[in-house]
Amino acid sequence: MNAAKTAKTLMWICLVVISALSLFPFYIMIVMGTHYNEDLFKGIPIAPGGYLADNLKTVMSADFMGVYLNSLIVSVVSVVLATLTSTLIGYALAKFEFRGRKALQTFVVLTMMVPTQVGLIGYIIEMRNLGVGNTLWPVILVWAAFPFGAFFMVQFIRDSIPNDLLECARIDGCSEPGIFARIVLPIMKPGLATLATLVFLWSWNNYLLPLVTINKSEWYTLPIFISNLGIVHRTDYAARMLALSLTTVPVLILFILGSKTFMKGLTAGAVKG
Amino acid sequence: MNAEQSLAPAAATSAASRKRRWGPHLWPYLFALPFVLAYAAFQLYPVVYSFVLSLHDWNGISEKTYIGFKNYVQLWTNDPLFIKSLWNTLIMMLMFIPLTLILGLVLAYWTFQLTRGKRLFQTINVLPYITTPVAIGFIFSYLFDWQTGLVNLLLTKFGWLQEGFYWLQDPWGSRAIIALMVIWRNLGYFMIIFMAGMTVIPQDVYEAAKMDGSTGLHTFRKITMPLLRNITVFLVVTSVIGGLQLFDEPKLLYGGWSGSAQVGGPDNTALTVIWKFVDESFISNTRFGYASSIAYSLFVIIVFFSILSYRLTAPKEDKR
User: Fold this and answer.
1) What is the per-residue pLDDT across B201-250, written as a single tens digit (0 to 9) for each?
2) Interchain proximity A237–B38, CB inside 8 Å
3) Is the whole-model pTM more than 0.80?
4) How far is residue A108's CA from residue A134's CA, in Å, rounded to a whole number?
5) Using the beta-carbon criterion (under 8 Å), do B38 and A15 form an inter-chain contact?
6) Fold topology of A62-272
7) With bands split at pLDDT 50, 70 and 90, how would you rate the model's confidence at A57?
8) CB-CB under 8 Å, B131 with A248
9) In chain B, helix, strand, coil percent, each to 5?
10) Which of A84, A170, A251 is the closest to B22 by Cβ?
């Protein structure tokens, strides 16, 4: 009894310590954003300071809102594109019998295996030739066909939509696009939410692609803006930390609010496989 | 009798599939078309084009010259930096993959048993995973900064070190910190994946084990771990694939806090394959042909290592 109790206490201590280590860097980041830059290095910044408003002014003066808007545009359009194409092909593969279905299914699985980096140079030259090299388009279009999304949607639609329902709608004379929009999509809401979460997160955090495509500051996304802020405000670490907080904290809050759906989204790929 | 019984469902399914075909045959093709077109245009074409480029000598401006596989020969026999970058990547993977697996499993097992606070611990530990790598790079390069970093301040304050340790300029220090960043970021993800696997294990298996007198560690080793085999295979294979493409963490660790843009870290000990690739093609150089051969070599390495890690971890009956 006693041994079990100490084991349990030890387990709790470990869990709390690890969780604290998970949170600590966030705390430091937020606190540092509230201090006057020169004060940062006088001691260890543990308590929040009173310089938040001034740091905010510094960050905003560098067109932070415009960059924020860019990132939002990229993520929202990517989410819409990726979920739309994935759901459509998922519906076709899961609920129709047609010549070439097996081959198409194999094709989707194969596309998942090719890392995007392999085609990076070709993709960027293609974008330059299309005349959209230095805009937001390359960062968005890379999501137009999202292999994992297509794979996920095939599984999800197969499991969640009864064939009888589709048959009934057909007998009642509903058109195929009508069936998709009015019957399939509403049932798919949880699956759509899951996929949207993943695409939003990955496109919001994407660093490599905007780094090599965008070098005009009007098209910067948040990760690029922040990693370049160092060059503009070479010494203003406090302002940079504040910009980081402004980038990460809203996403974290969204995640905490919808943690149930999001957690499902993150584990979606693994449990099936 | 028996034959009739087995025939009946077959007839029913074929009738159903005939019914499913009801309506224009064109629709499934139309539904699949956007994905296929987008894939062909924005992924397949670039991948093929990159391969063509890898057979050329091209700097993006002048004429392309076809040189066959010379880029690959040069890369594998005459570019020590590439070999070093591959070596660095593998070392760092060896540092973070086993540790994240073990810690993630233990953390998941503990959290899974909690009667309350389960979701709280899950949510807290997943937060690093959803944080943008840029933030992680900045925070870590601050924490481990030689002069102003919090870690050195604490170590010297408590008298464990006479003066600050040069974490980011030490060959092994830099690798260890990159591994630490990856572990910090992925631990919670591993944990919730393991937990999702544990929820799938039927509860009566545990009850039967308890009846037979199995407890704690024994149950964990004999029941939980074998049943999590598939999940573990998934995590190993995906983290090998992801690990070989390591870029964000090392790049941001050395492009962040100090403002200096040091390529590859101290003496290139933090240079990864993708960093070398990006540097050759977009940052220091525009050797598009040569860099494409790096990308393709990495592709082959990824295929090789994912098959290898699958063979090593997959259950025996799945091995061929």
Assistant:
1) 777 888 888 888 777 778 878 888 888 888 888 889 889 999 999 999 99
2) no
3) yes
4) 30
5) no
6) MetI-like fold (1.10.3720)
7) confident
8) yes
9) 75, 0, 25
10) A170
